[in-house]
Amino acid sequence: GAVVSQHPSWVICKSGTSVKIECRSLDFQATTMFWYRQFPKQSLMLMATSNEGSKATYEQGVEKDKFLINHASLTLSTLTVTSAHPEDSSFYICSATEDSHRGYTFGSGTRLTVV
Amino acid sequence: KQEVTQIPAALSVPEGENLVLNCSFTDSAIYNLQWFRQDPGKGLTSLLLIQSSQREQTSGRLNASLDKSSGRSTLYIAASQPGDSATYLCAVKTSYDKVIFGPGTSLSVIP
């Protein structure tokens, strides 16, 4: 079945630094990938839609300059949290689908802690 | 705007009981509905996917139904086990290719 790999699984960084999270579709090509954020005891909130070869589409309230998304190939999307602050600490999950008729496969998530 | 709710928010049952989790959505124009399981601090595991044209899907002890017209889906878990303890999320795919998640139901199965 479709597999999505996300790396790293956890990261601790200092305030003001940037962190890059990778999302890879291992056995299929994904023209579209999605990035979600989940705060403790809350559901997943869609942050942005990552489109291969074009700019990402951000949800309302998500800062484009803070959360940089690059979808450089059909199997890789990256999310860079720039100038991270403690309030950016959260669980970030990516997802992709092999085709629109199937469900979505999610990465294992990245726990970001900004100190 | 599509909104997804789940009832109950938390549920605790003794091992062996059958249980039902509920998911409601406000806009019936969905592409499909998917049930996920999330263990603490982990990613999501897909349990069942129901296309908009389907009424139900079954996998082992799990059965999910979909009633698009009323905006409801249920996840039925038979003969619950302690290993079923997790948060269960339902998510609908909208016609705009977005996936909207419900808040989840936290399930505890007591041995």
- Shape of chain A, please? globular
Enumerate how many helices of chain A there are, as a single number. 0
**What is the strand tally of chain A?**
11
Helix fraction of chain A? under 10%
Biggest chain pair interface: A-B, 24 and 23 residues
Shape of chain B, please? Answer: globular
Structural class given helices, strands, pairing of chain A? mainly beta
| Radius of gyration of chain B, taken over Cα atoms and rounded to an integer in Å | 13 Å
Biggest sheet character of chain A = 7 strands, mixed
**What does the main sheet of chain B amount to?**
6 strands, mixed
**Secondary structure: helix percent of chain B:** under 10%
- What is the element string of chain A, with H for helices and E for strands? EEEEEEEEEEE
Structure description:
The complex is a heterodimer of chains A (115) and B (111). Helix content of chain A is 0%, strand content 50%. Chain A has strands at 4-7, 10-13, 19-25, 32-38, 45-51, 57-58, 67-73, 76-81, 90-96, 105-106, 110-114. With 111 residues, chain B is an all-beta fold. In chain B, a hairpin with a 5-residue loop joins strand 4 and strand 5. The radius of gyration of chain B is 13 Å and the shape is globular. At the A-B interface, strand 4, strand 5, strand 9 and strand 10 of A face strand 4, strand 5, strand 9 and strand 10 of B.
Helices and strands in order, then pairings?
The complex is a heterodimer of chains A (115) and B (111).
Chain A: E1 4-7, E2 10-13, E3 19-25, E4 32-38, E5 45-51, E6 57-58, E7 67-73, E8 76-81, E9 90-96, E10 105-106, E11 110-114
Chain B: E1 4-7, E2 10-14, E3 19-25, E4 30-38, E5 44-51, E6 56-59, E7 62-67, E8 72-77, E9 86-94, E10 99-101, E11 105-110
